[in-house]
Amino acid sequence: MNSPRSLRDETATSSTPIPGEETATSIVRTVGRYHLLEELGRGAMGIVYKGFDPIIGRTVALKTITFDMTDDESKAKRARLYREAGAAGTLSHANIVTIYDVIEEGNTSAVAMEFIEGRPLSDVVKELAPMPIESALDIFEQLCAALDYAGARGIVHRDIKPANVMVAPTGRVKVADFGIARMGVSHMTQTGVVMGSPAYMSPEQIRGQPLDARSDLFSATIVFYELLTGQRPFSGDDLATTMFRIVHEPPIPASTFNDKIGPPLDKIFEKGFSKEPKDRYRSGAELCADFRQAWRTAGSTLAVSAAVRRLEPQSQAKTPDRTRLYAGVGLAAVLVILALGGFLGGWFGQKPAPASAQQVAAAPAGPSIAVAGPASKPSTPSPAAGAPPPAAPAVPTAVLQLKFDGASFPVRVFADGKPVGRIDNAAGRVTVPSGSMRIRALGEQAFFDRDFGSMTLQAGERRSLTVPATASAFIGVKGDVYEGLQILIDGRSVPGSYPAQLARITAVPHRITFRWSRGTLADKQLSQSIDLSGGRHFLIRAVPDDNQVSVQKVR
């Protein structure tokens, strides 16, 4: 702890022997009081060592994480590591790797955990998938038992994947990295590399929404699917495609890759992979019970050869018929339109609240304008002493109302570059001075920027302007080259980590730009017009080798 270096080399003179050492006196590397015996593996977050606690005399696994303590983000992550590892340390379950200790050594933090003699489930998948269903179910039931236990205590893993599940020689399954998984899936590294495991993420995790135990259960169901088929239900050629499919597309039926899996199991997978958490199973125990019952009903033993994968590779798998899905979406859209119609009818004629000072201050600055008033002012006599001053003459005004061709969203309205108000929903409207002006509307929570052009409004006139429908879009790069990347739409930077998901972007033509400032594509720029009209979901990908942007529309 007193050494400036993260990992110290010192002479061990303890009378407690270290396993694997010939003598009690030798040069060993340490973190805190723990001796590092050998390196077990490396990941995006740090290095995992086999270690030894000379005080208690037990073997441990040590996961080291190095933080750059010169920036506030790293300091916040380190503090969060202590909080979450401390909470996870309270978990005591047969299927969860126990956390013993958190150590601080210079810029390095280390989590001391239970050492498991065994191998990660990822090795099992590579060697044995597709597996007999009884074997796969045994693993899945243990995994779900761990997640149900942690979820009942409000702890979410956030990075369930085969590499974070250990299998002991006895067949016991142990989930690792509770309390530290969030450190690897929170956002991006400074080099622009997305951390975590997108192929196993839930839709709400990709969308950046709050997570609960149902998110972990979604990820665990992907693991079970992979055990039974040797494939993943949403995998794509690159990161953006995979994430897009998880959020928007149904899974490829497991029976596509395994002809011994019938429709009953496919339907259970379909529910387990529902896009909204409320539509999934409430617990892992419930999900496992349905899988086991469906298998018992089938009344046969699942034994699938690896030839299934060679005969039907995922790249040639057919996408399930979506007719019923789109029929349901269409019906829902009709109901929403009817509801909005009633809402507008009830609110039409109400006077809107003027924009608050905070809203006006938040709007982009524009050129100031002089509002045209009457040609001349009548002279007004001075008020008598003590009398209230006369009211200012009213400026003739008009009303602008936005009609949303779909769901509404907050929009700021500008007249000749000057903010005149904010519309929060389909019933809102803003008051503007009458006369000639140029009107522009800018979406706050959507990529919407519309210049309605110049128009003349008479005093007392009410004018309706139409806001186009919105779509959602995933934006990424073929080949996953994200280092130094900035993405702009119509000149506005797309915030957050990449690949990016836009929950709302107007379904009209846009100008998209991909610009790299460093890395293998430093100084490269792709700029292209893309048309998002007539679609509900889009996958937008830059293809650097071909200097173009591809747009895939999902109706």
Provide an overview of this structure.
It is a single chain. The protein is α+β, with helices and mostly antiparallel strands and 555 residues long. The protein folds into 4 domains: 115 residues, Phosphorylase Kinase, domain 1; 198 residues, Transferase(Phosphotransferase) domain 1 (Transferase(Phosphotransferase), domain 1); 98 residues, Immunoglobulin-like (Sandwich); 85 residues, Immunoglobulin-like (Sandwich), CATH 2.60.40. Helix content is 25%, strand content 28%. It is built from 12 helices and 25 strands. The strands form 6 sheets. Strands 1-2-3-4-5-7-6 form a 7-stranded antiparallel sheet, covered by helices on one side. A 4-stranded antiparallel sheet has the order 13-12-15-16, with no helix packed on it. α3 packs antiparallel against α6 and α3 runs antiparallel to α9. It is globular, with a radius of gyration of 30 Å. The two termini are 59 Å apart. The N terminus is likely disordered.
Task: Present the secondary structure layout.
Layout: E1 8-12, E2 26-31, E3 34-42, E4 46-53, E5 58-66, H1 72-88, E6 99-105, E7 108-114, E8 119-120, H2 121-128, H3 133-152, E9 165-167, E10 173-175, H4 182-185, H5 203-206, H6 213-229, H7 239-248, H8 263-272, H9 284-298, H10 307-311, H11 323-347, H12 357-362, E11 397-404, E12 411-415, E13 418-423, E14 429-433, E15 435-443, E16 449-457, E17 462-467, E18 470-477, E19 485-489, E20 492-493, E21 500-506, E22 509-516, E23 525-531, E24 537-543, E25 548-554
Helix pairs in contact: 3-6, 3-9, 8-9
